[in-house]
Amino acid sequence: MRIASWNVNSVKARLANVTDWLREAKPDVLLLQEIKCQDADFPALEFQSLGYQVHTHGQKTYNGVAVLSRAKPDAVRSRLPGDETDEQARYIEADFGDVTICGLYLPNGNPRPGPKYDYKLGWMQRLQARAAGLLAQERPFLMAGDYNVCPLDVDVFDPAGFADDALCWPDSRRAFRRLLNLGLTEAWRALHPKTVDYTFWDYQAGAWPKNNGLRIDHFLLSPQLADRLVACEIDRGPRGKEKASDHTPIVCEIADAA
Questions:
Q1: Which domains does the chain have, with CATH numbers?
Q2: What mean pLDDT is predicted for residues 30-58?
Q3: Residues 163-203: tens digit of each pLDDT
Q4: Which of 33, 162, 178, 198 satisfies CB 3.0 to 4.6 Å to 7 for a cystine?
Protein backbone atom coordinates (compact mmCIF):
# COMPACT_ATOMS: atom_id res chain seq x y z
CA MET A 1 0.00 0.00 0.00
CA ARG A 2 1.33 3.41 -0.99
CA ILE A 3 0.02 6.23 1.18
CA ALA A 4 0.75 9.90 0.55
CA SER A 5 0.21 13.02 2.62
CA TRP A 6 0.06 16.56 1.26
CA ASN A 7 -0.90 19.92 2.71
CA VAL A 8 -2.28 21.48 -0.48
CA ASN A 9 -3.02 24.97 0.93
CA SER A 10 -6.45 25.16 -0.77
CA VAL A 11 -7.58 22.24 -2.90
CA LYS A 12 -9.38 24.51 -5.36
CA ALA A 13 -6.30 26.66 -5.93
CA ARG A 14 -4.08 23.57 -6.45
CA LEU A 15 -6.59 21.30 -8.17
CA ALA A 16 -4.65 20.90 -11.42
CA ASN A 17 -1.42 20.26 -9.52
CA VAL A 18 -3.02 17.64 -7.31
CA THR A 19 -4.79 15.78 -10.10
CA ASP A 20 -1.64 15.83 -12.26
CA TRP A 21 0.37 14.40 -9.38
CA LEU A 22 -2.22 11.69 -8.72
CA ARG A 23 -2.09 10.59 -12.36
CA GLU A 24 1.68 10.28 -12.13
CA ALA A 25 2.25 9.00 -8.59
CA LYS A 26 -0.86 6.78 -8.31
CA PRO A 27 -0.91 6.35 -4.51
CA ASP A 28 -3.48 3.99 -3.04
CA VAL A 29 -4.40 6.62 -0.46
CA LEU A 30 -3.82 10.38 -0.43
CA LEU A 31 -4.33 12.37 2.77
CA LEU A 32 -4.92 16.07 2.19
CA GLN A 33 -4.63 18.93 4.64
CA GLU A 34 -5.76 22.56 4.43
CA ILE A 35 -8.38 21.86 1.78
CA LYS A 36 -9.94 25.17 2.89
CA CYS A 37 -13.51 24.40 1.81
CA GLN A 38 -16.69 22.93 3.17
CA ASP A 39 -17.58 19.34 2.30
CA ALA A 40 -20.20 20.34 -0.29
CA ASP A 41 -17.68 22.55 -2.10
CA PHE A 42 -14.91 19.97 -2.37
CA PRO A 43 -14.20 19.12 -6.06
CA ALA A 44 -15.02 15.44 -5.55
CA LEU A 45 -15.94 14.67 -9.17
CA GLU A 46 -12.47 15.51 -10.42
CA PHE A 47 -10.95 12.94 -8.07
CA GLN A 48 -13.67 10.35 -8.58
CA SER A 49 -12.98 10.51 -12.31
CA LEU A 50 -9.44 9.37 -11.50
CA GLY A 51 -10.74 6.36 -9.61
CA TYR A 52 -10.62 7.72 -6.06
CA GLN A 53 -13.17 7.49 -3.28
CA VAL A 54 -13.53 10.87 -1.55
CA HIS A 55 -14.14 11.51 2.15
CA THR A 56 -13.76 15.00 3.59
CA HIS A 57 -13.99 16.87 6.86
CA GLY A 58 -14.11 20.44 5.68
CA GLN A 59 -14.43 23.93 7.02
CA LYS A 60 -15.11 27.20 5.23
CA THR A 61 -11.94 29.11 4.33
CA TYR A 62 -9.69 27.42 6.90
CA ASN A 63 -8.23 24.02 7.77
CA GLY A 64 -10.02 20.93 6.42
CA VAL A 65 -8.76 17.40 5.78
CA ALA A 66 -9.62 14.65 3.30
CA VAL A 67 -8.96 11.02 2.47
CA LEU A 68 -8.80 9.99 -1.19
CA SER A 69 -8.54 6.24 -1.74
CA ARG A 70 -8.72 3.72 -4.55
CA ALA A 71 -10.46 1.20 -2.29
CA LYS A 72 -13.63 1.99 -0.41
CA PRO A 73 -12.85 2.34 3.29
CA ASP A 74 -14.67 0.07 5.70
CA ALA A 75 -15.36 3.03 8.00
CA VAL A 76 -14.54 6.74 8.18
CA ARG A 77 -14.46 8.88 11.32
CA SER A 78 -13.81 12.61 11.57
CA ARG A 79 -12.97 14.83 14.52
CA LEU A 80 -10.23 14.06 17.04
CA PRO A 81 -11.81 12.70 20.23
CA GLY A 82 -11.45 14.52 23.52
CA ASP A 83 -13.08 17.92 22.99
CA GLU A 84 -16.61 18.08 21.65
CA THR A 85 -16.42 21.89 21.54
CA ASP A 86 -13.55 21.90 19.02
CA GLU A 87 -15.01 23.10 15.71
CA GLN A 88 -11.76 23.15 13.72
CA ALA A 89 -11.65 20.52 10.95
CA ARG A 90 -8.24 18.97 11.50
CA TYR A 91 -8.62 15.18 11.77
CA ILE A 92 -10.00 12.24 9.81
CA GLU A 93 -9.39 8.51 9.95
CA ALA A 94 -10.37 5.59 7.77
CA ASP A 95 -10.20 1.81 8.14
CA PHE A 96 -8.89 -0.28 5.25
CA GLY A 97 -8.98 -3.94 6.16
CA ASP A 98 -6.68 -4.42 9.13
CA VAL A 99 -5.17 -0.92 8.91
CA THR A 100 -6.42 2.42 10.27
CA ILE A 101 -5.09 5.50 8.47
CA CYS A 102 -5.33 8.80 10.37
CA GLY A 103 -4.91 12.10 8.54
CA LEU A 104 -4.20 15.21 10.58
CA TYR A 105 -3.48 18.91 10.39
CA LEU A 106 -1.95 19.83 13.71
CA PRO A 107 -2.32 23.46 14.84
CA ASN A 108 0.54 25.83 14.06
CA GLY A 109 0.50 27.38 17.53
CA ASN A 110 1.90 30.83 16.70
CA PRO A 111 2.05 33.34 18.23
CA ARG A 112 3.56 31.74 21.28
CA PRO A 113 2.80 32.11 24.14
CA GLY A 114 -0.94 32.55 23.97
CA PRO A 115 -4.23 30.76 23.33
CA LYS A 116 -3.17 29.45 19.92
CA TYR A 117 -0.16 27.72 21.45
CA ASP A 118 -2.24 26.37 24.32
CA TYR A 119 -4.64 24.93 21.74
CA LYS A 120 -1.73 23.29 19.92
CA LEU A 121 -0.47 21.55 23.05
CA GLY A 122 -3.98 20.49 24.05
CA TRP A 123 -4.55 19.08 20.56
CA MET A 124 -1.31 17.11 20.80
CA GLN A 125 -2.44 15.66 24.13
CA ARG A 126 -5.66 14.51 22.50
CA LEU A 127 -3.70 13.01 19.59
CA GLN A 128 -1.51 11.13 22.06
CA ALA A 129 -4.62 9.78 23.78
CA ARG A 130 -6.04 8.62 20.44
CA ALA A 131 -2.77 6.91 19.56
CA ALA A 132 -2.72 5.19 22.95
CA GLY A 133 -6.29 4.01 22.38
CA LEU A 134 -5.44 2.52 18.99
CA LEU A 135 -2.35 0.85 20.45
CA ALA A 136 -4.50 -0.68 23.18
CA GLN A 137 -6.68 -2.20 20.46
CA GLU A 138 -3.54 -3.73 18.91
CA ARG A 139 -4.72 -2.45 15.56
CA PRO A 140 -2.11 -1.50 12.92
CA PHE A 141 -2.35 2.23 12.26
CA LEU A 142 -0.49 5.26 11.05
CA MET A 143 -0.91 8.96 11.73
CA ALA A 144 0.21 11.18 8.87
CA GLY A 145 -0.07 14.81 7.91
CA ASP A 146 1.17 18.29 8.68
CA TYR A 147 2.31 18.12 12.30
CA ASN A 148 3.62 21.70 12.39
CA VAL A 149 6.58 20.41 14.41
CA CYS A 150 10.25 20.27 13.43
CA PRO A 151 11.36 17.34 15.61
CA LEU A 152 15.08 18.28 15.60
CA ASP A 153 17.26 21.24 14.70
CA VAL A 154 18.35 19.37 11.56
CA ASP A 155 14.73 19.64 10.37
CA VAL A 156 14.84 23.45 10.07
CA PHE A 157 17.15 25.48 7.84
CA ASP A 158 17.80 28.11 10.53
CA PRO A 159 17.58 26.60 14.03
CA ALA A 160 18.63 29.80 15.78
CA GLY A 161 16.12 31.90 13.86
CA PHE A 162 13.29 29.47 14.69
CA ALA A 163 14.27 28.80 18.30
CA ASP A 164 11.29 30.73 19.68
CA ASP A 165 8.81 29.54 17.04
CA ALA A 166 5.95 27.25 18.09
CA LEU A 167 7.14 24.69 15.51
CA CYS A 168 10.50 24.29 17.28
CA TRP A 169 9.74 25.29 20.85
CA PRO A 170 10.82 22.63 23.39
CA ASP A 171 7.25 21.94 24.58
CA SER A 172 6.20 21.16 21.00
CA ARG A 173 9.13 18.82 20.52
CA ARG A 174 8.50 17.13 23.83
CA ALA A 175 4.86 16.52 22.87
CA PHE A 176 6.04 15.00 19.59
CA ARG A 177 8.53 12.78 21.43
CA ARG A 178 5.77 11.60 23.74
CA LEU A 179 3.97 10.26 20.68
CA LEU A 180 7.12 8.42 19.62
CA ASN A 181 7.66 7.13 23.14
CA LEU A 182 4.31 5.34 22.96
CA GLY A 183 6.11 3.02 20.54
CA LEU A 184 5.48 4.82 17.25
CA THR A 185 8.09 5.07 14.48
CA GLU A 186 8.69 8.25 12.47
CA ALA A 187 8.96 6.61 9.06
CA TRP A 188 11.05 9.07 7.06
CA ARG A 189 13.66 9.64 9.77
CA ALA A 190 13.88 5.91 10.48
CA LEU A 191 14.88 5.28 6.86
CA HIS A 192 16.96 8.47 6.44
CA PRO A 193 18.74 8.90 9.79
CA LYS A 194 21.37 11.39 8.56
CA THR A 195 19.62 13.06 5.62
CA VAL A 196 18.68 16.74 5.62
CA ASP A 197 15.50 17.43 3.64
CA TYR A 198 12.34 19.43 4.02
CA THR A 199 8.61 19.26 3.22
CA PHE A 200 7.73 22.98 3.47
CA TRP A 201 9.21 26.13 1.97
CA ASP A 202 7.61 29.51 2.68
CA TYR A 203 6.45 31.69 -0.21
CA GLN A 204 8.44 34.58 1.25
CA ALA A 205 12.11 35.59 0.90
CA GLY A 206 12.94 33.15 -1.88
CA ALA A 207 12.72 30.18 0.48
CA TRP A 208 12.19 27.59 -2.25
CA PRO A 209 15.12 28.47 -4.56
CA LYS A 210 17.35 28.94 -1.50
CA ASN A 211 16.17 25.62 -0.02
CA ASN A 212 15.25 27.39 3.21
CA GLY A 213 12.81 24.77 4.35
CA LEU A 214 11.23 22.98 7.30
CA ARG A 215 10.42 19.29 7.74
CA ILE A 216 7.00 19.37 9.38
CA ASP A 217 5.05 16.65 7.50
CA HIS A 218 5.44 13.22 9.05
CA PHE A 219 4.27 9.61 9.08
CA LEU A 220 4.09 7.97 12.51
CA LEU A 221 3.61 4.20 12.39
CA SER A 222 2.39 1.74 14.99
CA PRO A 223 4.76 -1.17 15.73
CA GLN A 224 2.81 -3.52 13.46
CA LEU A 225 3.12 -1.13 10.50
CA ALA A 226 6.71 -0.19 11.31
CA ASP A 227 7.54 -3.86 10.76
CA ARG A 228 5.98 -3.57 7.29
CA LEU A 229 7.66 -0.27 6.33
CA VAL A 230 9.24 -0.50 2.87
CA ALA A 231 9.95 3.11 1.89
CA CYS A 232 9.20 6.72 2.78
CA GLU A 233 10.22 9.53 0.44
CA ILE A 234 9.69 13.27 0.05
CA ASP A 235 8.62 14.21 -3.48
CA ARG A 236 9.94 17.72 -4.12
CA GLY A 237 8.56 17.86 -7.67
CA PRO A 238 5.21 19.53 -6.95
CA ARG A 239 6.81 22.36 -4.96
CA GLY A 240 8.58 23.55 -8.11
CA LYS A 241 5.38 23.78 -10.19
CA GLU A 242 3.44 26.92 -11.04
CA LYS A 243 0.88 27.84 -8.37
CA ALA A 244 2.45 25.31 -6.01
CA SER A 245 1.45 24.68 -2.44
CA ASP A 246 4.11 25.69 0.07
CA HIS A 247 4.23 22.00 1.10
CA THR A 248 5.21 19.01 -1.03
CA PRO A 249 3.96 15.40 -0.79
CA ILE A 250 5.54 12.72 1.34
CA VAL A 251 4.88 9.11 0.33
CA CYS A 252 5.09 6.00 2.52
CA GLU A 253 5.00 2.40 1.28
CA ILE A 254 3.72 -0.37 3.54
CA ALA A 255 4.05 -4.05 2.65
CA ASP A 256 1.01 -6.31 2.76
CA ALA A 257 0.57 -8.34 5.94
CA ALA A 258 2.35 -11.68 5.84
A1: 2-254 (3.60.10.10)
A2: 98
A3: 999 999 999 999 999 999 999 999 999 999 999 999 999 99
A4: 33
